[in-house]
Prior knowledge:
The complex is a heterodimer.
Chain A: H1 3-15, H2 25-65
Chain B: H1 10-34, H2 42-58, H3 67-86, H4 106-117, H5 122-129, H6 133-148
Amino acid sequence: MSRRDREAAARQAMDGTPPPVPPDLYAEVVRRGSRILRRRRAARRLMWVLLFFAVVVFAVWAATVQPWVVPPSETTPPLTGW
Amino acid sequence: MRERQPSRGGPARDFEAFVAGAAGRLLHTATLLTAEAPNDNPRARVLLTHAFAHTYACWDRMRGEDPYDRARQYLAVRFARGAWHQYGGLGRARPHPGSPLALLTPQQRLILVLRLYEGVGEEQTAALLGLPTERVHAICDRATAMLLHPPRGPAPTVAGPKVVPS
């Protein structure tokens, strides 16, 4: 029995009678699919909100602390009286 | 809120036509995978519903991709991921003796169905399941042999762990 014959026989064994498709399949698919879309959209919105708040918090912190300003020197004593 | 869903006009009708056309064949594929009887296939129906729901969610973003291919891939990967723990001793997922593939393991069924019933190429099957091509080839050969010449004697699924006397 050649490989091709064996594959054809296996295909034939798998053919059989197809199972009946449940009538409410489409409605159920649309229900679940819409839920996936809704969840995806909610996750995306949550991500944007978090990003927005992170930017705001960073901006406020930077404006108050101003980390780019060189702090006044504390090691050299001030030169006075000459 | 509904602007992204394929629920208005053309796309919805496209999707409905796709489901109507592909459901019969994919349900047969799923039933072969789960080795259930054609008239009592709750696991296959769940698999198919999830695969179609996933296709529905990606429907608007598919650019020239074959939706059938997409749904079939999702079905196969979901079955591959779910098979090992659903078959772990719960007993509810025992293959139905009426299924032609009842004697095969879930992995053998998956590869045999993808390769021969669905006609997916060897390399594609290997890439989809993350296996080497040679292994897919070997498993497919072994599954074909097992399907055409089942081992004699009672089916191994019937003989439980009680066979060995303590």
